[in-house]
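Appendix C: a fully annotated inverse folding record. The material below is reproduced so that readers can follow the format used throughout the book. The structure is listed first as tokens, followed by the designed sequence.
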């Protein structure tokens, strides 16, 4: 039985997509999966589990079948979350303080980033004294910066009319002028040996407040990055625990910025791995036509303070099970046949399902479901855990729904999909 502590530990370890991929790769290896390198030839054995990481931030794991042209069950999610990414040369001094400036990554809900104790994490590429280049994951355990909000006395309209200029207002203060130098800070963070040089970095601010349970009965989970690490957590455990041939998880990076990258769902990571596993074009077509892709990404739960923003008949509640997402314009990939399959699996797993449709006068979000389904030539369904405050630095969900999601994904992996 998965525990909320396991989930909180997973969220706290996975502060960037790089850390998420590393956390998951370690878990798969600890459960007997073998690491594959895209640069090497692969010798795959039926019944064995394998894991592949691309760009350090996207991950595929699968259990090799005896007959690769059979129907596969593939779970998809994403490793990235909206965040603030440090600019290449972030440091300047203002008003006697050292500040580090950041770019907005994805659709960040900006207000909650003010007055948070922020750490720095990501990866750095360095050159040592012997001419060797290396790439290292780094993370400040303690908070190093804060984006202080303006006192209400100096902004009397803050509660009624507040806008945020991302260029002017999102620099984090890290100390008094003269006390800090950016390159030296990063060298210390990466524990660089004497004479090593920093060549490049992808560093993000992250909230040092840990994930935790919440509520009188402690049934809620509150944390950064629930979208979409919840789905990675459920999918990772479901794949390992089901341990069925012809099952796979794909966790892409860059979903929050459109997926058009080599680690994103619109790149060739999945199709490339799929070609190497399944075989020739005819076998891949046979496999795809009998396979199901399950795109798992958080769904907007009905918020007690903002009832009106939901469609009255399709307003998912926290603690009432997983959400099945529909959209006539195919922003979600669910259709009647994939829904039927999902409902059968939900019945088998005893998991309640709720339906979500966006209000017809509002814009609908999307997931990696439709594009992966199109690229793979595979039927697909979109589901997710009901969640509040998506894209905030602190999101909230119900742990019961996460257990339900795990059970549903596991049931999906343990069945075969018939069109
Ligand atoms: Zn998402």
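Designed amino acids, in order:
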């Amino acid at each position: 039985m998965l525990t909320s502590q396991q989930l909180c530990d997973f969220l706290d370890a996975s502060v960037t997509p790089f850390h998420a991929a590393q956390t998951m790769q370690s878990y798969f290896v600890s459960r007997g999966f073998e690491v594959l390198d895209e640069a090497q030839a692969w010798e795959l054995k039926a019944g064995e589990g394998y894991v592949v990481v691309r760009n350090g931030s996207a991950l595929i794991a699968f259990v090799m079948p005896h007959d690769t042209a059979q129907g596969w069950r593939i779970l998809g999610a994403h490793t990235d979350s909206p965040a603030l990414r440090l600019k290449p040369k972030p440091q300047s001094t203002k008003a006697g303080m050292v500040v580090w400036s950041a770019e907005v990554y994805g659709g960040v809900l900006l207000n909650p980033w003010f007055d948070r104790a922020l750490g720095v994490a990501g990866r750095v590429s360095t050159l040592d004294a012997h001419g060797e280049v290396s790439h290292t994951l780094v993370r400040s355990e303690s908070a190093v910066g804060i984006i202080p909000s303006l006192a209400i006395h100096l902004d009397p309209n803050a509660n009624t009319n507040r806008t945020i200029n991302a260029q002017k207002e999102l620099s984090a203060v890290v100390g008094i002028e003269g006390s800090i130098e950016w390159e030296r800070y990063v060298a210390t963070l990466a524990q660089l040996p004497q004479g090593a040089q920093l060549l490049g970095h992808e560093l993000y601010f992250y909230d040092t407040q840990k994930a935790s349970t919440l509520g009188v009965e402690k049934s809620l989970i509150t944390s950064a990055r629930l979208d979409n690490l919840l789905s990675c957590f459920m999918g990772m455990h479901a794949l390992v625990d089901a341990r069925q041939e012809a099952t796979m998880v794909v966790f892409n990076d860059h979903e929050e910025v459109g997926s058009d990258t080599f680690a994103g769902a619109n790149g060739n990571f999945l199709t490339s791995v799929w070609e190497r596993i399944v075989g020739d074009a005819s076998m891949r077509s046979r496999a795809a036509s009998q396979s199901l892709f399950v795109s798992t990404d958080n769904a907007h739960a009905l918020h007690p303070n903002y009832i009106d923003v939901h469609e009255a008949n399709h307003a998912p509640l926290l603690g009432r099970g997983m959400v099945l997402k529909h959209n006539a314009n195919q922003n979600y990939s669910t259709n009647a046949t994939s829904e039927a399959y999902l409902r059968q699996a939900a019945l088998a797993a005893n998991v309640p399902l709720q339906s979500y449709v966006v209000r017809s006068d509002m814009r609908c979000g999307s997931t990696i479901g439709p594009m992966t389904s199109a690229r793979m030539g595979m039927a697909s369904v979109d589901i997710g855990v009901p969640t509040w405050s998506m894209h905030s630095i602190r999101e909230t969900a119900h742990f019961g729904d996460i257990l339900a999601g795990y059970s549903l994904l596991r049931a999906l992996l343990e069945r075969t999909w018939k069109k």
